[in-house]
Amino acid sequence: MKFISRSFLQQSLHKLSSNLLPSACALCGQQRAGVMCESCQHRYANQAVTRCAQCAISLSAPTSICGSCVANSPSFDATFCATDYAPPIDVLVQALKFSAQLPLAAAFAKRIRKVVPHTAVADAAVMIAVPLSLPRLAQRGFNQAHEIAKPLARAWCLPLDGMLCVRIRDTEPQSSLPLSKRRGNMRGAFTLMRSDSVKGQHVLVVDDVMTTGETLHAVAATLKRFGASRVTNLVFARTPAR
Prior knowledge:
The protein is 39% helix and 15% strand. It has helices at 6-20, 38-44, 67-71, 89-99, 103-115, 118-121, 134-140, 144-156, 179-186, 214-225; strands at 78-84, 124-129, 165-167, 190-192, 202-210, 230-238. The strands form 2 sheets. It has a 4-stranded parallel β-sheet with strand order 1-6-5-2. The protein has a two-stranded antiparallel sheet with strand order 3-4. The model is unreliable at 16-21 (pLDDT under 50).
């Protein structure tokens, strides 16, 4: 009997499912184009902009670290993002988060992988997603950041620990607060379930959107308090500088 490779079967099943369940680009509507067609990916999610190496904010002039990170360094060490949080990308993010359009998570992960060099994650020991509070998780039914993290962890053969970092305080949504109150809102919001699990380790933290960075700062501060040596953020969209 002729041997059929696993990769051949996976490619065949993917092609069959694409034919049986034709998909349309979420932005332009082109049929059988996947979640985002190549044209829309290139136009909206392939931005070659200069970004701060620590917080990924877009910069007007080439430099490694932005002035804000120099003046008030966050707890995380680096951030990679695929695109800016701006129209029409913002509609896709909201569709994943609030309308449970879960196929978008894999498309977001694919875009993140394109901007992260292998050397930036080669020594990482574990990946986590920014956790939701239990009430918000029960209401939504899923954690959008965890859904984005799953294909990333598989691609890089990393353990994805959904129970390592937990949110112990149900904070106000950051988007509803003025900038001056966002850091205080996140203070003491997270903890780790296993105190020695990240000691001396490089941890990757995944989220869908980074606005001011206060949530990711709070997660990284928790990880560093428990001994993490390095924290790298992987986010799909970053709110541009104003």
